[in-house]
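Hi P.,

Sorry for the delay on this. The queue was packed all week, but I finally got your sequence through. Input first:
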Amino acid sequence: MKKAGKILLIVAFLFATIFIAVLFYARFDELELYEKRSSITMYDVHGNVLYETNFKKNIHWTDLDQIPKRVQDAVLAVEDKRFYTHIGFDPLRIGKAFFNNLIHQEITQGGSTITQQYAKNLYLSNEQTLQRKISEVFYALRMEMQYDKEEILEGYLNTLYYGHGVYGIANASQFFFSKDLSDLDDCELAVLIGIPNGPSIYSPLISIEQATERKNLILDILYEEELLSKQAHREAKEEAIELHINQINETKGSEQYYIDAVIASLKEQNISLDQPLYVYTNYDPQAQKALSDAIEAHVDTKEQLEVSAVVMEPFTFKVKAIAGGKDYTLSSYNRALYAKRQVASTIKPLLYYTALQQGFSPSTTFTSQPTTFQIDEKTTYAPTNFKDIYAYRDISMIQAIAVSDNIYAEKTHLFLGMDTLKEALLSFGIEDVEENPSMALGTTQMSILELAKIYTAFASEGLYEEPSFIDHITDGNGKIIYEKEIACKRLLLRDETLILNQLLTATYDPKNIGHNVPTLLDAVPNVKVAGKSGTSDYDALAAGFNPDYCVAVWSGNDDHSELDEAYFKTPKLIWRDTFNALYPEGGGSWYKRSDAIIEKRVDPISGKESSSGSVYWYKAENE
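Then the structure:
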């Protein structure tokens, strides 16, 4: 027994020593409350702050004395009743949460205090690991030892995330209800308290039903804590949620996809994130707003359809804006960078460039009719046109690209040799290219960023550079530690590329109406552009450019399920509206012919010269 007593005494001494050491560490190891998860500041192309890990600078901050006591009490009642008595973590809350989760055999209740949640927001990620949870407790303990409760509560209320690019309960009040916190009724307050637990679920902009269910749960808690009278509780539960949206953030949080892409780019460049970084990006808020507004106008967040898009600057290959999905709150997965999908007929301009390089001209003809191709002794291939519509006569390359004729494309592909298109794709760094007949119809998979860089090479008159999100980076002393050098190389022949660019205006040329209708005739921008659309059973795309911008858009379902034909037009409309927003007063610019190129007025269907035809460009030496 004496031996057991000694062991217990030693164990108690060790625990006491560790506890005192932890408290000493928490008290004297200085913790900057508003500095730095990874200490990154990002700037847009105008030098304005795009993103900071310093929350207090990054958002509109509301002092605690400006947040009504009623609001503070309600938040504490729901999130952390013993906030003013615990030391950063709450053993009783943790035990209760563990017991409830054990009973329900699932995570139904969290044990984190407000201090822990704030610590996670400032310093940690959202990953669900034991190591992250232990770190969260240590950070919370340090906060409590070094700062008073009011500072912690103020920080927490200002860094709550509500989705849609909105941080802080005061900003959320303005965003959802166009009201100051002091003017909120009980129903509205309950809605705001409920959203941060799951913005992608409980935002009333996403699901009014889920938001109402969450609101009623919050009201029940407030009633149980005697913060609401019985009558007020009943009336608030009966009150319908009525929103009055005030767009605090014009891009609605869509810049977060760009921010994520910049952080990914930093990692790819092996730049340490454990140092102060001042990152000057290529992000253009006007371009992002143009793209985001177009997506919002044509994609319903309540439907399954997803979208990704890129706006890139020709001749520099700077990425000006991206959309990795229809709403970052719903999904942070960046489809623009990582989702590989079939590009369908948007591959055809690259095929026709290789044909122009091999001596074809815009007037080169093939017969458009149902055709079975003999690939080898055992293999045949019989592609079809959309809805089995054919010209049943010779058509020009102009007409083929205008109406996206698959038979013409396949004949070109096989005439040149299937390795020709494969080599062209490999030259752009497109991986996993399989040489087969269907390549000409766009069965190769790539991200919308990869497609955009091909089209930006067209827009850049054949010059090429890898796309970039970052212009340069400086350290805490102002020293440049990274700078992107724009050193475009010639990847495509200039004259053939210029001829192709003029050729790509055929897709909305009304004189191309023949056996079918030009594919972009129902989505013509207000400025002259080159463009091409594409559709498969599962994907829809549109891509195009002028010398100032390249815009590429994809839409489809994440599960690769068949795409309803009603959505085939969606990327075209987004593409059109983005260009229109980039040029609100029209104008724009176009390419100039070299001395080796002549223009001819031709009947675009036959490719023969015609005084009433349309203008296309030709190599002078071939005429």
